[in-house]
Design goal:
Length: 423
C-alpha cells in the first residue's frame, strides 16, 4: 500500500502543479447486484437425511466507483454477501452436515487500484481483478458471490501491432472464502493466499487466430495439507481462433499444451502435463461443441501419498470439468474430461433477449489407473431482460461410477436460479 500512496500523491501533485495540462475529472459509478438460490443434493457417507440437502439464498452487492483524469484512474470497490437462508455449508460457517455452497457471508474491499493507461501501455497497481485468456490458470471466479482478486502490479504492453505482453507480479490472492476464511480448522480455505507469484503472457494475433505463450510461477506461503503447497511452475502455449465456412456457418478451434513441475516451497518432485483441444461449429442459431481436456498425474511418492497431479489453484474452476464442481482439486490420479454440447440462441423474446439454452455432457476418467470417475449432465438457460437485468436457471447432475475415487466423489445434483443487475 505504501507504493500505492506514493503513486497517488505523485499523480495529484502533477495535476496541481501543471494546471495548463490538467484534465477533466470523470467519475464512473460501479453497482452490481446478484440474488441467487442454490440447491445441492449430495450422497454422503451416512444415509441421506433431510439436512444433507443444502438450500442457499444469497444476495451479493458490489458498489464503488472510478475517478479518472487524463491517463490516471483510481478505482475503489466494496463487496458484500448476505446469506438470506443459510441452510448450507459455506466452507467456513461450521455447518458440516450440509453440502458445500461456497458463498460465505462477507464484507470486504474487493478492488482498490490505481491505473495508468495509454493506448500502448496499461499499468495497474493495487487490489485488482485479473482474467487471463479463458481463465484456466488465472481468473476472478466470477461465478461465486465473492470474487477472487489479487494484490499485484500488472503491466500490459500493446505497442507492437498484433502483439501483447502481459506480466503480473502478485503478492496475495484474496479468495472467495471472504473475511471468515480459515475458520473451523480449514487450512485450505484462507481469506488470502500470500506468496510470490508471476503470471506472464505473450500473445500474437494472426488471421487464423491468436497464439499465446505463457509462464505461471506460483509460490504459495500457505499449505494445502500438511507440508504440501500448490507452489508450481507451468510453461505452455495455446492457439485459439475461428474460421467462417459459409454464410451463418463458422468453425472455432482451440489447442493448448502445458508442462507443470514443482517450484519454490513445494517439497514434492513431480511433473505433469496439461492438454486441451476443442472444436465448435456454429450453424445459424445452433452451436455444437466437442472437446477434450487432460490434467495429468505423476506417480511420485512422498511418505504414504502416491501421485501428484496438475493443479490450477488460481483458475476460475467452475468453468471447467462440469458445473457440479467435483474437480476443483485435481485427483491424485489426474483427470481426463471428454465433453460435448449444444447451444441454441434466440435473439429476441418480445422486447427481451438474447435467450440462450445449452446442454453439455462430460465423461470423466483418470490419467493413471484407468478409473472411470463418473458422468455429468449440465443444462442452462440465460435471458437478457434489459440493458441492466439478466436471469439464469442452471442444473448439474454428476453420476459417480463405481466406488468413490477421491474426496467428495459422490452422486451430486445442483440447481441454481438467479437474477443479476449491473448499472
Amino acid at each position: 500500500m505504501r507504493g500505492l500512496k506514493m503513486l497517488l500523491s505523485a499523480s495529484a501533485l502533477a495535476t496541481v502543479a501543471t494546471p495548463a495540462l490538467a484534465q477533466d475529472i470523470v467519475f464512473k459509478p460501479i453497482v452490481e447486484a446478484r440474488l441467487r438460490y442454490e440447491m445441492v443434493e449430495q450422497d454422503g457417507p451416512l444415509p441421506l437425511v433431510e439436512d444433507r440437502e443444502a438450500n442457499a439464498v444469497t444476495m451479493r452487492l458490489r458498489a464503488g466507483g472510478e475517478l479518472s483524469s487524463g491517463p490516471f484512474a483510481l478505482l475503489v470497490e466494496g463487496e458484500g454477501t448476505l446469506a438470506i437462508n443459510e441452510d448450507y455449508n459455506s466452507g467456513v460457517n461450521g455447518k458440516t452436515l450440509y453440502p458445500i455452497v461456497a458463498d460465505p457471508e462477507n464484507v470486504e474491499a474487493n478492488r482498490v487500484q490505481i491505473q495508468y493507461r495509454t493506448k500502448p501501455l496499461i499499468v495497474t497497481l493495487g487490489r485488482q481483478r485479473i482474467n487471463l485468456d479463458d481463465q484456466r490458470f488465472v481468473g476472478s471466479v466470477a461465478w461465486r458471490q465473492n470474487e477472487q482478486t489479487f494484490d499485484a502490479v500488472r503491466v500490459e504492453y500493446m505497442g507492437v501491432k498484433n502483439l501483447k505482453v502481459d506480466v503480473t507480479y502478485a503478492i496475495a490472492a484474496r479468495t472467495i472464502w471472504g473475511i471468515d476464511g480459515g475458520k473451523f480448522g480449514s487450512v485450505n480455505r484462507p481469506t488470502e493466499i500470500d506468496g510470490d507469484n508471476v503470471f506472464a503472457n505473450v500473445s500474437y494475433k494472426t488471421k487464423f487466430g491468436t497464439l499465446t505463450g505463457f509462464a505461471y510461477l506460483v509460490d504459495e506461503d500457505e499449505p494445502v495439507a500438511a507440508l504440501l503447497r500448490n507452489s508450481s511452475q507451468t510453461y505452455g502455449a495455446r492457439f485459439v481462433g475461428a474460421l467462417p465456412l459459409a454464410k451463418k456457418v463458422k468453425l472455432s478451434y482451440l489447442a493448448s499444451y502445458a508442462r507443470q513441475s514443482d517450484y519454490a516451497k513445494n517439497p514434492v518432485d513431480y511433473k505433469a502435463d496439461y492438454v486441451a483441444a476443442e472444436l465448435g461449429l456454429e450453424v445459424s442459431a445452433f452451436k455444437l461443441t466437442a472437446g477434450y481436456e487432460l490434467l495429468g498425474s505423476d506417480s511420485t511418492t512422498l511418505g504414504s501419498a502416491t501421485g501428484f497431479a496438475f493443479q490450477t489453484p488460481f483458475a476460475t474452476l467452475h468453468k471447467f470439468n462440469g458445473w457440479a464442481d467435483k474437480f476443483l482439486t485435481t485427483p491424485t490420479t489426474g483427470i481426463q474430461d471428454y465433453y460435448g454440447g449444444i447451444a441454441y440462441t434466440v435473439p429476441k423474446v418480445g422486447k427481451m433477449g438474447p435467450l440462450v439454452a445449452s446442454f453439455i455432457f462430460h465423461r470423466f476418467s483418470s490419467d493413471r489407473l484407468s478409473i472411470h470417475y463418473g458422468d455429468e449432465y449440465n443444462a442452462q438457460v440465460t435471458l437478457k431482460i434489459d440493458k441492466h437485468l439478466s436471469a439464469l436457471v442452471k442444473y448439474a447432475d454428476y453420476d459417480r461410477q463405481g466406488i468413490a475415487s477421491f474426496t467428495g466423489d459422490a452422486d451430486t445434483k445442483k440447481f441454481w436460479a438467479q437474477i443479476d443487475y449491473a448499472l
